[in-house]
Amino acid sequence: MSADRYAVVGHPVAHSLSPRIHQAFGRQLGIALEYGTIDCPPEQLPDRVAAFAADGGRGLNVTLPHKRAAHALCTELGPTAQRCGVVNTMAWTGDGWRGHNTDGSGLVRDLTERRRQDLRGRKVLLIGAGGAAHGVAPALLDAGISALFIVNRTDARTDALADLLADPARVHPRYYEDMDDLGPFDLIINATSMGHDAGDGDPVALPGKMLTPRTDVVDLSYGRAAVGFLAWARAAGADRLFDGLGMLVEQAADSFRIWHGKRPYTDEVYEELRKEFGFPLASD
């Protein structure tokens, strides 16, 4: 009997660590699986997802730029996907796809359990209003933060995310050009590609007064893709710096549980990847 088939779909996707992570989880729990990658441009997503199901595919992880479109392809939605409006995990039910989102639970678990962060009562700045921001925002609110300020280059997307969250007492959409007047913050999260092309000596330009020496900073990217943003944070005096590698592993573990009914241990997989993607700016 052949192993069940899973994959991550995105564009581009060759760089994804998801196959490696899920194969490690499978070995840990003695679950045979095949896990590959599907690189497809947005216009091909419906056909490629349908073909994967027709060929026996049981589950998909979804990454950029498909998280919004994947939401529309699902015939059922879990409560988190309903709430955030984007999907990063799809499970085949036999009649259609059931969509989930594990990004937020992955981020919060990484911050609170691995990093020992207490999110309760914290004033948070979320930079970005795309799929990644949609995925993590509800979980941050559930973790007890006191205020969530959202900024994005496109004001309409900022307002749309704030409206979706439906928590006007804590959620505050702001214009990107107003960031200089918003701080300071307890926690700043970059959910954009800002800084991906910046090197260690060329950090992104953002107002330093958003930070105090007690501000923690997270980039949802990992490894070299997070260098530019975290270099800015270090230069501005941030307290602790985290990239998104831990979130990646934790959200994958939550996806694995959805598909297989068991949640793997993550520390060993995380430590192996951290050694490979060692990052001197992060505060591990």
TrEMBL record:
<feature type="binding site">
    <location>
        <position position="251"/>
    </location>
    <ligand>
        <name>shikimate</name>
    </ligand>
</feature>
<feature type="binding site">
    <location>
        <position position="222"/>
    </location>
    <ligand>
        <name>shikimate</name>
    </ligand>
</feature>
<keyword id="KW-0521">NADP</keyword>
<feature type="binding site">
    <location>
        <position position="220"/>
    </location>
    <ligand>
        <name>NADP(+)</name>
    </ligand>
</feature>
<dbReference type="GO" id="GO:0019632">
    <property type="term" value="P:shikimate metabolic process"/>
</dbReference>
<dbReference type="InterPro" id="IPR013708">
    <property type="entry name" value="Shikimate_DH-bd_N"/>
</dbReference>
<dbReference type="GO" id="GO:0005829">
    <property type="term" value="C:cytosol"/>
</dbReference>
<dbReference type="GO" id="GO:0004764">
    <property type="term" value="F:shikimate 3-dehydrogenase (NADP+) activity"/>
</dbReference>
<keyword id="KW-0560">Oxidoreductase</keyword>
<keyword id="KW-0028">Amino-acid biosynthesis</keyword>
<feature type="binding site">
    <location>
        <position position="244"/>
    </location>
    <ligand>
        <name>NADP(+)</name>
    </ligand>
</feature>
<dbReference type="GO" id="GO:0050661">
    <property type="term" value="F:NADP binding"/>
</dbReference>
<dbReference type="InterPro" id="IPR022893">
    <property type="entry name" value="Shikimate_DH_fam"/>
</dbReference>
<dbReference type="Pfam" id="PF08501">
    <property type="entry name" value="Shikimate_dh_N"/>
</dbReference>
<dbReference type="InterPro" id="IPR036291">
    <property type="entry name" value="NAD(P)-bd_dom_sf"/>
</dbReference>
<comment type="subunit">
    <text>Homodimer.</text>
</comment>
<feature type="domain" description="Quinate/shikimate 5-dehydrogenase/glutamyl-tRNA reductase">
    <location>
        <begin position="111"/>
        <end position="194"/>
    </location>
</feature>
<feature type="binding site">
    <location>
        <begin position="16"/>
        <end position="18"/>
    </location>
    <ligand>
        <name>shikimate</name>
    </ligand>
</feature>
<comment type="similarity">
    <text>Belongs to the shikimate dehydrogenase family.</text>
</comment>
<feature type="binding site">
    <location>
        <begin position="128"/>
        <end position="132"/>
    </location>
    <ligand>
        <name>NADP(+)</name>
    </ligand>
</feature>
<feature type="binding site">
    <location>
        <position position="88"/>
    </location>
    <ligand>
        <name>shikimate</name>
    </ligand>
</feature>
<feature type="binding site">
    <location>
        <begin position="152"/>
        <end position="157"/>
    </location>
    <ligand>
        <name>NADP(+)</name>
    </ligand>
</feature>
<comment type="pathway">
    <text>Metabolic intermediate biosynthesis; chorismate biosynthesis; chorismate from D-erythrose 4-phosphate and phosphoenolpyruvate: step 4/7.</text>
</comment>
<feature type="domain" description="SDH C-terminal">
    <location>
        <begin position="244"/>
        <end position="274"/>
    </location>
</feature>
<dbReference type="Pfam" id="PF18317">
    <property type="entry name" value="SDH_C"/>
</dbReference>
<dbReference type="GO" id="GO:0008652">
    <property type="term" value="P:amino acid biosynthetic process"/>
</dbReference>
<feature type="domain" description="Shikimate dehydrogenase substrate binding N-terminal">
    <location>
        <begin position="8"/>
        <end position="89"/>
    </location>
</feature>
<feature type="binding site">
    <location>
        <position position="103"/>
    </location>
    <ligand>
        <name>shikimate</name>
    </ligand>
</feature>
<keyword id="KW-0057">Aromatic amino acid biosynthesis</keyword>
<dbReference type="GO" id="GO:0009423">
    <property type="term" value="P:chorismate biosynthetic process"/>
</dbReference>
<dbReference type="InterPro" id="IPR011342">
    <property type="entry name" value="Shikimate_DH"/>
</dbReference>
<dbReference type="InterPro" id="IPR041121">
    <property type="entry name" value="SDH_C"/>
</dbReference>
<feature type="active site" description="Proton acceptor">
    <location>
        <position position="67"/>
    </location>
</feature>
<comment type="function">
    <text>Involved in the biosynthesis of the chorismate, which leads to the biosynthesis of aromatic amino acids. Catalyzes the reversible NADPH linked reduction of 3-dehydroshikimate (DHSA) to yield shikimate (SA).</text>
</comment>
<dbReference type="GO" id="GO:0009073">
    <property type="term" value="P:aromatic amino acid family biosynthetic process"/>
</dbReference>
<feature type="binding site">
    <location>
        <position position="63"/>
    </location>
    <ligand>
        <name>shikimate</name>
    </ligand>
</feature>
<dbReference type="Pfam" id="PF01488">
    <property type="entry name" value="Shikimate_DH"/>
</dbReference>
<dbReference type="InterPro" id="IPR006151">
    <property type="entry name" value="Shikm_DH/Glu-tRNA_Rdtase"/>
</dbReference>
<protein>
    <recommendedName>
        <fullName>Shikimate dehydrogenase (NADP(+))</fullName>
        <ecNumber>1.1.1.25</ecNumber>
    </recommendedName>
</protein>
<dbReference type="InterPro" id="IPR046346">
    <property type="entry name" value="Aminoacid_DH-like_N_sf"/>
</dbReference>
